[in-house]
Amino acid sequence: MSFLRLYDNCRLYYQFIDSDKAKPVVVFLNGTAQTTKSWWLQAKDLQGQFRILLYDARGQGQSDLGKKELTLDGHIYDLVQLLDYLGVNISHLVGLSHGARVACEFGQRYPDRTNRVVLCGLGNDLSPRTLALIESWYQVLKSGNLETLAWSMLPVVFGGQYLEKHKAIMKDMVSGIVRRNSADAIKVHLKSMVRYLSIGDMIFDKYPPALVVTGKQDAIIQINQSRILAEKLGAHLIQLKGVGHSPNIEAPGAFNQIIAQFLLATK
User: d(Cα 79, Cα 90) in Å, to the nearest integer?
Assistant: First the structure.
């Protein structure tokens, strides 16, 4: 296992699949309550074409929560430190949900270090419904436990087709979320998310080529918010049928093909 000890002594867990330095680097950024394991299907399928960098952000998976307040600025600075440590000057970014929010901001602040950006499950702003959902998850953790939260997240994070196909292993899915996460860390994470600057308030002058991917059954981010974001970034918007908030997990074959084609494009 590989860890980078950051400026404040917080340990950041990462996996760098580095087989050929001539290949472009793709950084995958996790969603809430997800870890590097959420991207294994992408890493396995795409490592022949790319160098793959997976990491758990502060408070996720095997990374420490640290003693600093969780902020969007902090997450971006952590990523800069990780890339500098690994000698990666420029990379593609593929983020889901919270990870997409970090990737979106990173591309705006560091366009010279960003090749292309894929944003999944992200909209121009957090709607009242999404804000209420985040608050409900926080309240579940306050009054319940991580297992209760995991059960409450499944029907929201995944679409109906995926849940039907995997109904026999839902208990295992919940156990995995519980095993890989900390209730205290997720509480801090949820509280920090609602304080981020709205994407709608950001100015995008020169933004790297971007792709916005969403599921037609996404119950967290409404399609109109993703459409506004795509228009703001000058990005192409792709909606996947029968997919919820996690296209990388629910439809890995189609998702991998889409992002590989986009990341390998020369224009």
Answer: 12
Count the Cβ atoms, other than its own, within 10 Å of residue 7.
Answer: 9
Instruction: Report the length, in residues, of the chain.
Output: 267
Phi and psi angles of residue 210, each rounded to the nearest 5 degrees, phi first:
-135, 155
* C-beta of residue 116 within 8 angstroms of C-beta of residue 259: no
Q: Which two tokens stand for residue 66?
A: 């640290």
Rounded CA separation 237/228 (Å): 10
Helix residue spans in 52-182 (DSSP H): 72-86, 98-109, 128-143, 146-157, 160-165, 170-180
For 112-165, the pLDDT digits (tens) are: 999 999 999 999 999 999 999 999 999 999 988 999 999 999 999 999 999 999
- Per-residue CA distances from 222 to 123, 189, 257, 258 (Å): 7, 22, 24, 21
Q: How far apart are CA 85 and CA 79, in angstroms?
A: 10
Domain range summary for the chain, segments of one domain joined by + = 2-264
Q: Which CATH class is domain 2-264?
A: alpha beta
pLDDT of residue 267: 64
**Amino acid making up residue 37:** K
3-state percent helix, strand, coil for the chain, nearest multiple of 5? 50, 15, 35
Whether the predicted pLDDT of 207 surpasses 80: yes
Q: List pLDDT tens digits, range 34-77.
A: 999 999 999 999 999 999 999 999 999 999 999 999 999 999 99
For residues 73 and 85, give the distance between their C-alpha atoms in angstroms, rounded to a whole number: 18
What pLDDT, on the 0 to 100 scale, is given for residue 106?
97
